[in-house]
Amino acid sequence: MKLVLLGPPGAGKGTQAKRLVEKYGLAHVSTGDILRAAIQQGTKLGLEAKGFMDRGALVPDELVVGIIRERLQAPDCKAGFVLDGFPRTVPQAEALDRVLAGLGSRLDAVVAIDVSDQTVIDRNTQRRSCPKCGATYHLVNAPPQKPGVCDNDGTALVQRPDDRPEQIKKRMAEYREKTEPLKAFYRKQGLLQEVDGGQPPDDVFARLVGALPRAVSR
Ligand code: AP5
User: How many angstroms is it from 9 CA to the middle of ligand 1?
Assistant: First the structure.
């Protein structure tokens, strides 16, 4: 299964991608996670990406397309993958089609997780993440067992720099302007499915699985 998850910031792409990975044994390819890891490691890619990410802007297409071109060739992607946060612009989507064609492959489905603007604000402002293992929590909907620390490894939880109100606004604007047009792009290719992401995670997952083509979701 080769799948793209689309959706505004905080729609639940990461949350649902982890469940899909568990159910179908897919590789989880999150450009946001890859870029945050590069920043933490202080690599050249991280240094280039940091300024864009901290202010809630998209990183230039050529940087992320380069990441994806390399990542999709890794052995774990052979059995299928879920792309979380990529593509985010029409040029990225066109580049993805070319990369996959070069590998003799194509996408099976694109699922857009739709949520209201108020949900975007709530989910992002209330999110806390573990800088060590990447686990995410929501202060109200999915709190850690012990306040402020990760259930998996006891590390102190942090708020992402782009989860502050000004940056959330910018990320929403970037989504509307540059990413939402991808719905029309994929609708035209007959690949787009849309699910309501405003429900509890288990319900969203059931709808998501139900929206996948039967040939790949059995
Ligand atoms: P990225 O990390 O991809 O951020 P995003 O798209 O803004 O998405 P988020 O990670 O904020 O949210 P999500 O949809 O995964 O939701 P989550 O499951 O965490 O990108 C960050 C930055 O990197 C970008 O701004 C850009 O600068 C750069 N970048 C990345 N990819 C790029 C690309 N392709 N091109 C250019 N630049 C790129 O859930 C959010 C919260 O809600 C959590 O607290 C969770 O517990 C909670 N939650 C989730 N689902 C539910 C539910 N159903 N009910 C209640 N709570 C829920």
Answer: 5
